[in-house]
Design brief:
The chain is α+β, with helices and mostly antiparallel strands and 718 residues long. The chain has three domains: 219 residues, no CATH class; 248 residues; 126 residues, no CATH class. Helices cover 62% and strands 7% of the residues. It has 29 helices and 13 strands. The chain is globular, with a radius of gyration of 32 Å. The two termini are 59 Å apart.
Length: 718
């Protein structure tokens, strides 16, 4: 059994467990209803049955059945989604395996392609869109409930006709409702049109729903895997249950588009088939993401590339990476995509061109995942020496942790082969954490290490912000009454040490949970032993490259929680959106003005057509309208206060534009902004209105300011 087959087996085991648990839950649900009715049954008098009593009892039973169906819908809906996830996980885990083993460095956005499948499947099945008769889950449960109510009516009518006592009829009804009650051999004879097992139809519906969810999700996720074109049918030969059609299908292979669904209450399943070996798939992907020719993968990317939010080739590199042919291209990416405030001339002049390009790609990949540089107060990149054995370093201010500079030392980075030799020797001797000893990975490992420092500096800043620090007054906690520099900066250094120690403890704790026999010394490099900060950077580098050891795997888990936290666009910090600039942390508006100016500049420097097409896809608004908004806000010049010029950069509009471009957490006022600017453009360019007139008319229909103020107040950002 290869690794892919093991993924399928694990998925089937989870599905079997889900099916069994669902069966038990539904049985328990009916049993609980029976228990609640048992009390009423026991209170029934031994005398003859009255119509009033029968009517009351029937009403009580129907109420219980109605409530039960509501719970039943929740159970089945939840399990439909879980079932869909079980199937989707095969393909997602397959790509993650390939990623780890081949060092492809897939970004989080790659998972977006699969994450929507379970929700889509749930919607299709619950709404009924998937079925020819169009009946959704609620309608099918309603039909089942009507069948149960009909059975209850028949039992009561027969009891009245036969002049049974209230007690006898109550016992019959309680026996009918309880799925665990054994029916006498003559139950069918006494009640010929009544089901012997009350929960049979509910169980049948539930099992069919999650079975179809599994198959549908598997087919949808396989469509997004370029290496799967067929599935193999497996029939389960249960004694007395396997129908002729299932026997005929067993072992047959179907194209994804031709695969039939199993019949209701079926036990059959389908196995997705790879059309190439795992080794060849890894090699093909590795070659392709580096620019190799593979028409099949190109065709696949053309179809599904929009899932990657502007990134190309399975989220490994951004579209900008494809255009990094020269160091000038790299410089543009470092500013516009990675987010450096400045790329100093020393970096461009002293670093080997191949190293500039390789490390620009790596920095962009890391920034797409973690956003540290964009979230920093100020970041620059240069090439300067530090002394000692350092070949690169991050310099920052104790009072302002994310005002930082990344520097690559010219003695080492001016020559590609010299750096590779140094990195390889240091790795083999245990100074650095494990990584693939390939030129490409060795060339980016130290920059990856340094990005780890930058990430931890952001964590330190977050802790400082939580204690009242603001970037506009970074030195407010300096203790000027103290004499030594250490005492003067104690507030800052205490927080720094606290954060670094906490990171260390959390990562070690994960490693020990993963393996109770975890050995620290055999997993950490010599450099990583020097301090908590170097430990973090070394383990981060190991986790982000292709040879993670136990500490690297622990770091990956730790980073997942970090990303989950920071990826929440509305993750609140002391009542405000984390990382957002407000009147509280930017009272004189200087930081917001600076941010807006830099962002407007980056928009103008990006690929205009790609920018417009991306926002059009994310919003559903036509390309021509988005192009007019783009030109109006960023390009066109008008007679405004102060002369013929562009509009001033606006912080809130820059935030709206960023969400629209990224396609994440788009707000109501973001869409209103597009409509407002589109109308304002027409009024000024077609009808020759001045700005004041055009703005007032556009605002009367699309009031961006009003919607913005509402959003800011709701999120404590005013």
């Amino acid at each position: 059994m290869n690794k892919y087959e093991k993924l399928i087996e694990d998925s089937r085991k989870k599905q079997s467990k889900l099916t069994l648990n669902q069966y038990k839950k539904i049985r328990d649900l009916y049993r609980d209803v029976a228990k609640s009715l048992e009390t009423k049954a026991n209170k029934a008098k031994k005398g003859s049955l009255t119509e009033r009593w029968a009517k009351d009892y029937k009403k009580a039973v129907r109420t219980q059945i109605k409530q039960m169906n509501s719970v039943l819908k929740n159970i089945v809906s939840e399990n439909i989604e879980k079932s869909a996830e079980n199937a989707t996980d095969i393909q997602l885990n397959f790509f993650e395996q390939i990623n780890v083993e081949n060092g492809l460095g897939m970004s989080e956005s790659f998972k977006n392609m699969f994450s929507s499948v379970p929700n889509d499947v749930l919607k299709d099945i619950v709404s009924g869109d998937f079925y020819k008769d169009g009946k959704g889950l609620s309608q099918r449960l309603w039909f089942n409930g009507n069948k149960v109510n009909g059975d209850i009516d028949r039992i009561i009518q027969k009891g009245i006709a036969e002049k049974k006592s209230a007690y006898e009829l109550a016992q019959d009804l309680q026996t009918y409702v309880n799925p665990n009650s054994k029916k006498d051999w003559d139950w069918k004879k006494v009640y010929p049109n009544v089901a012997k097992t009350i929960d049979y139809n509910a169980q049948r519906l539930a099992r069919t729903s999650i079975s179809h969810a599994y198959t549908l999700s598997m087919l949808k996720s396989c469509e997004k895997n370029p290496f799967v074109n067929k599935v193999k049918w497996h029939s389960v030969f249960a004694p007395g249950r396997t129908c002729p059609l299932c026997k005929e299908r067993d072992g047959q292979e179907y194209l994804l588009k031709n695969c039939p669904m199993d019949h209701p209450n079926g036990l059959c399943y389908q196995e997705p088939l790879l059309d190439d070996s795992l080794e060849n798939i890894g090699s093909r992907l590795n070659s392709w993401v580096k620019g190799g020719n593979d028409p099949a993968l190109d065709s696949w990317y053309d179809k599904y590339g929009n899932y990657f939010s502007g990134e190309s080739k399975i989220g490994i590199k951004s579209t900008a990476n494809n255009g990094i042919k020269t160091i000038e291209d790299a410089k543009k990416v470092l500013i516009n995509e990675v987010g450096f405030t400045e790329v100093e001339d020393s970096f461009m002049e002293n670093v080997d061109p191949e190293l500039i390009i390789n490390n620009t790609r790596q920095l962009e990949k890391l920034e797409n995942k973690y956003g540290v540089i964009h979230d920093s107060v100020n970041t620059t990149i240069c090439s300067s020496s530090r002394g000692g054995n350092a070949i690169a370093y991050v310099a920052n201010e104790a009072t302002n942790p994310t005002r930082q500079n990344l520097s690559l030392c010219p003695d080492d980075y001016s020559n590609f082969n010299k750096l590779i030799k140094y990195e390889k020797t240091a790795t083999e001797k245990g100074y650095f954490m494990p990584r693939a000893l390939t030129n490409e990975e060795l060339s980016i490992s130290t920059v990856t290490h340094e990005y780890g420092h930058m990430l931890q500096n952001k964590l330190i800043e977050d802790e400082m912000r939580a204690k009242g620090w603001i970037p506009d007054k970074p030195m407010q906690f300096i203790n000027t009454k103290r004499k030594t520099s250490k005492a003067v900066l104690k507030w800052y250094t205490d927080i720094e040490m606290k954060v670094k120690k906490r990171c260390y403890d959390e990562i070690i704790d994960i490693a020990k949970k993963n393996n109770p026999k975890f050995d620290f010394n055999s997993n950490i490099s010599r450099y990583g032993r020097e301090s908590y900060g170097e430990f973090f950077a070394e383990v981060f580098m190991n986790a982000e490259l292709s040879k993670p050891n136990e500490l690297g795997l622990a770091m990956r888990k730790w980073l997942k929680s970090f990303k989950d936290m920071r990826n929440k666009t509305i993750a609140k910090d002391k009542g405000a959106i984390r990382g957002a600039l407000t009147g509280k942390n930017d009272p004189d508006n200087k930081l917001r003005e600076k941010h807006a100016e830099q962002y407007y500049k980056s928009v103008r420097n990006r690929d205009k057509n790609l920018e417009i097409e991306t926002i059009s896809k994310n919003t559903g608004i036509d390309v021509k309208s988005i192009e007019k908004v783009y030109n109006h806000v960023f390009i066109n010049k008008y007679d405004l206060y102060g002369g013929h010029r562009n509009f001033d950069a606006d912080y809130d509009m820059s935030q709206s534009w960023q969400r629209l471009r990224e396609g994440k957490s788009i707000q109501e006022h973001d869409i209103i902004m597009l409509k407002h600017e589109r109308l304002e453009y027409e009024l000024m360019n077609r009808y020759n209105k001045n700005y004041k007139e055009a703005h007032k008319l556009a605002e009367s229909k699309y009031n961006y300011d009003k919607a913005l103020i509402k959003y800011l107040k709701e999120n404590n950002l005013d």
